[in-house]
Design goal:
The complex is a heterotetramer.
Chain A lengths: L3 H19 L3 H23 L22 H32 L13
Chain C lengths: L2 H22 L5 H28 L2 E4 L14 E4 L1 H20 L8 H20 L3 H19 L6 H32 L4 H9 L5 H17 L7 H9 L2 H27 L5 H25 L3 H21 L3 H32 L15 H15 L5 H15 L5 H25 L34 H19 L3 H13 L1 H10 L16 H22 L6 H6 L3 H11 L4 H20 L4
Antiparallel strand pairs in C: 1-2
Helix pairs in contact in C: 1-2, 1-4, 2-3, 2-4, 3-4, 3-10, 3-13, 3-17, 4-5, 4-10, 5-6, 5-10, 6-8, 6-9, 6-23, 7-10, 7-19, 8-10, 8-23, 9-12, 10-12, 10-13, 11-12, 11-16, 11-23, 12-13, 12-15, 12-16, 13-14, 13-15, 13-17, 13-18, 14-16, 14-17, 15-17, 15-20, 16-20
Chain D lengths: L1 H20 L3 H21 L3 H37 L7 H4 L9
Helix pairs in contact in D: 1-2, 2-3
Classes of the chains: A mainly alpha, B mainly alpha, C mainly alpha, D mainly alpha.
């Protein structure tokens, strides 16, 4: 149990890479890239977790204490999610334009950049 | 390379990388352990600045330049999408034809949900430093909420009630406000992105100094940015189509009947 | 207003100005946005120069938000400037200013947004250069990336531009996410993200598997950006299609930033724990491989921009070997080499942009003898081409001689041979293209009927970026002149060599970096700066490489007229060339497969001797 | 508490594999949205409410919407592109469709 979350994170990263290598559609390749990135979310949050600890938000019920989950990995994962959303949008825009210019979204049939 | 050769090369590489990961994972501290050095530093630092939500304190106070970089990535991507999805030289924007009819029930639900969603989004933005949520999450809720107009009405209704220039300016103002507060930190306290506003009382709406201000700037920026982003994807799908297709007598695709309103005709 | 406060301003001001241009762009006339953008870049260059002068005495450190470190740990993010990265920040701002100056009469349809993206690109590069925090470097790495993907794919009417931008985006982002994976692994044990803190903690640890794997994963993203061999495929596709001023930033400094990031992370964080010998051997091997593959592919190209892109890949291989010897001489030589190369290569890209604007394509065979008319462009081109081949007064020649000497002294006697061969082949390819386009020398190349017979990109159908200007505007020639003058200054200024030597000595002094960042202690007792100056032997080798380059150029022009016996001797090379061409296939799946194989081979080369 | 985490992790792993395996363009947006929801559940199990909320908003709503719009644009496009832009390789077919608009240069 102590390393299972890390292996799930590594599995997502490698499956995402496999998705890009095998994909027949550029949108599918971009979606697989975001799956690979989800591997980093799982790894970061797994590294910051503490058994029995609560969320790092204090209020009237929970007085400030140190028995909370690591907030810094959550901040890093938040930034990572924003990066994922925006870079995915940019790459989808490029994929749409590639399909418009070369008539096919399949990377195998793209002829433009050779040699 | 052929597909199979590519797969073989990948599997060899991925196999070794998987072995690498395994070796490293068994050397890492066990999952759920209690040794978190950065947390032991971040929690007291957050409490010292009267911020109840420690994640918001890390995001907007202790490591604020990460969030500045993150929001600038959002601005760069929205500008990039706007540049990449503009109508090409030989394309033009058609007036979208009213297609299909929305159910009365959906319309009613939409009109009821719209103000509620916008209110929730605003609440999530403003309470960023007290409860889970914050500028980014609230901005996303606001952006998706606005698109209820499209669900209930038609694209033309959405287009009329959502002037893109206003949202472009809103996004730019949000990003500039974030950097401006940072520069104000230098002017007032000599440190970029310093928490220069008095802390207020712990756990209340007015607490945590500049965190709510930065949350508001990010909320404005993300809300406008995602509306512009989705708008460009909607435009690309609904109203931009190739010029040559327009000249064809028959026409299978639906924007056929729309007359051209485009500005970027090929001279 | 201390210099410490300058650093965050160098990041924040371009962002604010980009937002201003974005918000008010449609109301302001075109000239005002041009001036605003160029003035901002020049302002940042001025700040970088002030920072460089001040960091000469002692490193400039600022902890953002006032979160000072206590007992060696902190919650804040440090921005640290020593002479090397302040110089790099100055080079970044200078190149952006020249690129913006060049692109005044540019791409009417997206003008305001083009300048906003260039300023955000500048902010990203400045942030990456100055940051002293691993996760912060990842964030600015992604900001550089996002702006670069959009700028690459900007000419959406050109089918190669959007495909090059997509490939560039997917491969670089995957590299960045693998870097973040490494940061996560390292964070699990040490709980800190700042380079000074990590360096202090890592010094007390023996290098076990976690440290090695984390190191390889973190620098993978930077090495993808630096186009090391198995990761380099995206670079030629992205460079060949980006607008000329954007290529200036890619080849001039963005690729070198990847190398700087890897070197900085190694020196400060991992330098005390992973032994220097293993790192040196690994990166000499990969550097030599990169230089060789880049040079061969450069000679095979007929698309001018791809030719220059492969020349950049081969020169990055040489820079990597300079940094890999991990001593002051190598670092000083490599830094000088980077600055000299940036000026010359940027000028060549801008000249190719002029050719594209006037004649509508960048295909060497199609342009045969067409540019015979304009003298000025021709002599600028040949000055830059000879500079690339290693003509002495240029900073590139001084950098090459110092670097090859440092690598040879470090025990790799064969290095000068490789340096001269690579300079000769890449310089020769550029000279061959120039002689064909400007001089019309050599037999007229046979033009195949269809543009690009599918086996290689020829650049025949590139879209001109401006409306076919009758006369080259003076701003374009001014930008090219400044770049060439910069490269010359790096070679001719009397104390330039010593300045680079001092910068290298402070860069490799990791203990000083850590102690000054964490506790603001005084600078460590300075070690003697290495001697970096023109040497007789260096100048001799430089002239040799220029002569060889001219030989290679004429070989390329008159290959068909060689006696049959000589041409048969080149027969064994044909299968290798065929394999190389096939491997550079422009397919996104291939590049990702090679990316994972590259990570595996880098770990094997680095980790196995340690087990 | 551990059972929930193990279950959520397994669900995320399977959902990620499903997204990669979904070749048909139509199914990609839905599987991606399901993967986003699985991640949201996992983040709640990891005691990370902020991250769960933003993953819900982005990973389950905005990105799948953009993927769906991109797929719709691509699936409609070849129908037009084939007729309009297929000049160079199917030159012989030109005469068969008289009166067709010229190719976009």
């Amino acid at each position: 149990m102590s390393v299972y979350p890390y292996f799930v994170a590594a599995w997502l990263m490698l499956v995402g890479g496999y998705g890009i290598v095998r994909s027949r559609n550029l949108v599918h390749a971009v979606v697989s890239l975001s799956v690979a990135q989800a591997g980093t979310y799982v790894l970061l949050l797994a590294v910051g977790y503490q058994r029995g600890a609560l969320a790092p938000v204090f209020g009237s019920t929970t007085k400030p204490n140190k028995h909370v989950v690591d907030p810094v990995v959550q901040a890093m994962t938040l930034t990572d999610i924003v990066v994922s959303a925006t870079v995915t949008a940019l790459l989808l825009a490029l994929a749409v334009q590639v399909n418009k210019r070369q008539g096919t979204p399949d990377p195998d049939e793209l002829q433009a950049l050779k040699g | 390379m052929s597909r199979s050769a590519r797969l073989v090369v990948f599997l060899i590489g991925a196999g070794c990388v998987a072995a690498m990961f395994a070796v490293a994972f068994f050397k890492m501290p066990a999952f759920g352990g209690s040794m978190h050095l950065y947390r032991d530093l971040a929690v007291p630092a957050s409490v010292s600045h009267y911020t109840a939500n420690v994640v918001a304190s890390v995001n907007f106070d202790q490591r604020a330049i990460d969030t500045l970089g993150e929001e600038t990535i959002l601005v760069a991507s929205v500008i990039g999408a706007a540049v990449l999805l503009r109508p090409a030289e030989e394309e033009a924007e058609m007036r979208p034809k009213a297609v299909g009819r929305t159910l009365e029930a959906t319309k009613l639900a939409g009109y009821l949900l719209l103000p509620v969603t916008l209110l929730i989004g605003l609440d999530v933005v403003l309470h960023g430093q007290v409860t889970p949520g914050g500028g980014f999450q609230g901005g996303v809720i606001l952006a998706t909420g606005l698109h209820l107009l499209y669900v209930t009405g038609s694209y033309r209704a959405l287009d009329r009630l959502r002037p893109l220039e206003l949202f472009d300016t809103g996004e730019a103002v949000g990003a500039a406000a974030f950097a401006g507060v940072g520069i104000a930190g230098i002017v007032v306290a000599g440190n970029f992105l310093a928490n220069i506003v008095p802390g207020g009382t712990f756990g209340q709406l007015l607490s945590a100094g500049t965190v709510p201000i930065l949350n508001g700037a990010v909320g404005l920026e993300v809300g406008c940015g995602i509306v512009v982003l989705v708008a460009h994807f909607l435009q690309q799908d609904i109203i931009i189509s190739a010029q040559a297709e327009q000249a064809k007598p028959g026409g299978s695709s639906e924007p056929q009947a729309g007359e051209r309103v485009g500005t970027a005709e090929r001279s | 207003m201390t210099t410490g406060q300058l650093m965050p301003l160098m990041i924040a001001i371009p962002i604010v100005m980009a937002c201003l241009i974005l918000a008010a762009g449609s109301y302001l006339p075109r000239v005002v946005t041009d001036i605003l953008a160029t003035a901002t870049a020049a302002g940042v260059a001025g700040m970088a120069a002030a920072l460089l002068i001040h960091s000469g005495h002692s490193r400039v450190v600022t902890w953002l938000g006032g979160w000072r470190p206590a007992r060696g740990v902190s919650v804040g993010i440090p921005l640290v400037a020593d002479p090397l990265n302040a110089g790099l920040a100055l080079l970044v701002a200078g190149l952006v200013s020249c690129a913006l100056l060049y692109s005044w009469k540019y791409m009417e349809s997206v003008s305001g947004r083009f300048f906003a993206l260039m300023l955000l690109f500048l902010a990203g590069m400045e942030g990456f250069t100055l940051s002293g925090d691993v996760f912060d470097m990842f964030v600015f790495f992604e900001l550089m990336g996002a702006a670069a993907y959009a700028l690459t794919g900007m000419k959406i009417e050109d089918k190669t531009a959007v495909q090059g931008g997509l490939i560039f985006g997917v491969v670089n982002s995957l590299g960045a996410y693998i870097s973040l994976f490494g940061v996560g692994i390292l964070y699990s044990r040490f709980g800190q993200l700042g380079l000074p803190q990590l360096g202090a903690m890592l010094r007390q640890h023996r290098p076990d598997a976690l440290v090695i794997v984390a190191f390889v994963l973190i620098i993978t993203g930077f090495l993808v950006k630096a186009a090391m061999v198995p990761f380099h495929f995206w670079l030629a596709d992205a460079h060949a299609v980006a607008p000329a001023p954007v290529c200036v930033l890619f080849s001039g400094v963005m690729v070198e930033l990847g190398l700087y990031g890897a070197a900085r992370v190694y020196w400060v964080a991992f330098g005390g724990t992973i032994p220097h010998a293993d790192v040196t051997r690994a990166f000499i091997v990969f550097g030599a491989l990169t230089a060789a593959v880049g040079a061969v592919m450069c000679f095979l190209q007929r698309h001018l921009k791809r030719l220059l892109a492969y020349s950049t890949i081969s020169h990055v291989g040489l820079f990597m070997m300079g940094f890999a010897v991990l001593d002051d001489d190598g670092t000083a030589g490599a830094a000088l080499y980077v600055v000299g190369h940036a000026g010359v290569k940027s000028a060549l890209f801008l000249l190719t942009g002029i050719l594209l604007n006037r004649y509508g394509n960048v295909d060497e065979h199609r342009l045969y003898g067409r540019a015979r008319g304009d003298r000025l462009t021709a002599c600028l081109y040949f000055a830059a081409a000879l500079g690339l081949a290693g003509l002495p007064p240029f900073g590139l020649a001084l950098g090459k001689s110092v670097t090859e000497d440092a690598v040879a002294v470090a025990g790799y006697g064969w290095a000068p041979v490789l340096f001269i061969a690579v300079s000769a082949v890449t310089g020769g390819a550029v000279l061959r293209a120039g002689l064909r386009v400007f001089g019309g020398l050599g037999p007229r190349p046979a033009l195949e009927s269809t543009a690009g017979a599918g086996e290689e990109s020829t650049g025949g159908e590139e879209k001109p970026e401006t409306g076919g200007l009758p006369r080259t505007p003076v701003t374009m020639l001014l930008a090219i002149g400044i770049l060439l003058a910069g490269s010359l200054a790096a070679g001719l200024l009397p104390d330039a060599g010593q300045a680079f030597a001092h910068a290298a000595q402070r860069f490799t002094d990791a203990a000083g970096y850590i102690s000054q960042a964490l506790s603001h202690a005084g600078a460590a007792p300075p070690r003697p700066d290495p001697a970096v100056a023109w040497t007789g032997e260096g100048i001799g080798l430089d002239f040799l490489s220029v002569a060889l380059a001219l030989g290679v150029a004429f070989l390329g022009l008159y290959a068909r007229r060689l006696p049959a016996a000589l041409r048969r001797s080149a027969a064994p090379a044909r299968p290798v060339i065929a394999v190389l061409r096939q491997v550079h296939s422009g397919h996104i799946g291939d590049y990702v497969a090679w990316l994972f194989t590259g990570i595996a081979s880098l770990t094997a080369l680095l980790g196995l001797p340690l087990l | 508490m551990n059972v929930l985490i193990v279950a959520a992790l397994t669900l995320v792993g399977l959902a990620g594999t499903a997204v990669v395996a979904a070749d048909m363009p139509e199914r990609q947006a839905v599987t991606l949205s399901f993967f986003g929801l699985a991640l949201t559940v996992l983040f709640m199990a990891f005691q990370a409410p902020d991250v769960a909320l933003s993953q819900l908003g982005v990973g389950a709503a905005i990105v799948p919407l953009m993927v769906m719009l991109a797929i719709r644009t691509i699936s409609q496009r070849p129908a037009r592109e084939e007729e309009a832009g297929s000049g160079e390789d199917k030159a012989s077919q030109e005469e068969v469709l008289p009166g067709r608009g010229g190719d976009p240069p």
